[in-house]
Amino acid sequence: LLAADGTVAATIFAEMSALAQRTGAINLGQGFPDEDGPAEVLDAARRAISDGVNQYPPGRGMPVLLEAIAAHQQRFYGIRLDPQREVLVTAGATEAIAAVILAFVRAGDEVVTFEPFYDSYGATIALAGGTHVTVPLLAPDFQPDLDRLRDAVTDRTRVILVNTPHNPTGAVLPRATLELIVELAERHDALIVTDEVYEHLTFEAPHVPIATLPGALDRTISISSGGKTFNTTGWKIGWVSASAANITAILAVKQFLTYVNGAPFQPAIAVGLGLPDAFFTGIAATLAAKRDVLSAGLVAAGFTVSQPAGGYFVVADAAPLGFDDGAELCRRLPELAGVVAVPITAFVHEERRAGYSSLLRFAYCKKFELLERAAGQLAGLG
Ligand code: PMP
Ligand code: GLN
């Protein structure tokens, strides 16, 4: 995890945000919203601090949040959870991913993910000494070839790690693919770990948690977070739901990673999870409109765009503009267009970068006027 010179290599997101800050360019690199979320949620955190909710909360998470997570899973997906035994609060989805991988993956165990993959997957699999096996998602639709998926899962597979809606591609896995994943996990006795941080940000159809598929619940570990749903990425309140035995194994790791996290933010996220349906449909509709503004701008600028079905990001191919090296283009984009993006090669193992070299990820979780300004500036690229 260290750079060749022994220093800590900054994540691509930190590097690109620093580039935006240094150059004053519009930051469509790191995925975080530039507006606050619902006032009820923010007020609840302020109130909790005033009310003295400032010391270590319980190890599993505060009962009010555990109950709100269970009620949310029941309300949106019909999943029944025992809040005291089948839910665990974590420091964002990031800690959940690390704790789950460290809990279940031993040296030599294989973990199957799609590729491109969110950066922490590769890092935590490496920390656990696991072997990372990937199934490619290719432009333009970024859906996996199901035969390649079948080939990737074997008796050596300990975990199939799924992420839908997907970062960085915006792909949403259809039910048939989720069913195949459940079938393969059953056949090879693997766990399914599912990262659903964008569960409320789907644009075509409601999110289908893999845990709701027949036969999936017992072997599935579901991960989500309040960051994306409530525009509170800096609060780092995430959670895991799974069988009681699996939660116990994950808690055993979590207690030595952070012990506990974010006391006053926990009751606030509980308020968020209980907001009326209109809130949840509203955020998806607004984000879809933002996606459309940025996608149209990218198309007008000459990129080939893969329209995302969910999440924060759109992938644009710069090859039609004559740029074949996306990493190089991202370094120059502040000067060429006053915009920062992230190269898709940052989400891909070195040996597979060639297949993704001209692709860029742009975040549209930003104010409309900023997206319109970015679109205008990018129009000068061609
Ligand atoms: N998984 C995915 C797919 C993400 O995009 C992110 C962050 N945006 C995370 C996990 C991390 O979530 P958190 O900020 O809650 O740790
Ligand atoms: N998940 C966000 C992204 O993909 C950023 C998270 C981070 O900086 N680690 O941009």
TrEMBL record:
GO cellular component terms, A-Z: cytoplasm
Domain Aminotransferase class I/classII large: 25-375
Keyword terms: Aminotransferase, Pyridoxal phosphate, Transferase
Keyword Magnesium listed: no
Highest rank taxon of the organism: Bacteria
Keyword Protein biosynthesis: no
Database matches in InterPro entries: Aminotransferase_I/II_large, Kynurenine-oxoglutarate_AT, PyrdxlP-dep_Trfase, PyrdxlP-dep_Trfase_major, PyrdxlP-dep_Trfase_small
GO terms of molecular function: kynurenine-oxoglutarate transaminase activity; pyridoxal phosphate binding
Cofactor: pyridoxal 5'-phosphate
Similarity-based family: Belongs to the class-I pyridoxal-phosphate-dependent aminotransferase family.
Protein name: Succinyldiaminopimelate aminotransferase
Organism: Microterricola gilva
